[in-house]
Design goal:
123 residues, mainly alpha, two-stranded parallel ribbon
């Protein structure tokens, strides 16, 4: 979601990449929640972070968005960059029916949305 928001609001100012600790498929309920507010996640996919590390990619900012229980698993990127950590609940850890999960995902979506907009105002 963070990647989609930055691309939506500032794709002309930032080259945006995202990855996960592990590769996987995008959560379809997350995709649905973003579509609800008119933001597509088309062409986004869960890329493993190790690919970026192995290629020694350089980033000006590395923003981690995992919850505090997974923060220690976030890898360190080589090179000089500003590392920022934003703690959000993991959408895939929300229990319940799809509708209950979607309600929780909407809350997380709005938290991320607000944080991205705030950060973009400062950068």
């Amino acid at each position: 979601m963070c990647e989609a928001f930055v691309r939506h609001y500032a794709g002309d100012r930032f080259e945006v990449h995202s990855s996960g600790i592990e590769a996987g498929k995008l959560n379809p309920l997350v995709v649905q929640a973003m579509i609800e507010i008119g933001i597509s996640m088309k062409d986004q996919y869960a890329k493993p972070v190790q690919e970026y590390i192995d290629r020694s990619e350089h980033f000006d900012y590395v923003i981690t968005v995992c919850d505090e229980s997974n923060a220690e698993r976030c890898p360190l990127f080589p090179g000089k960059h500003e590392r920022i950590h934003w703690s959000f609940a993991d959408p895939s850890a929300i229990p319940g029916t799809d509708e209950e999960k979607l309600i929780g995902i909407r809350v997380i979506r709005e938290e991320i949305h607000q944080k991205v907009q705030q950060w973009l105002l400062e950068h």
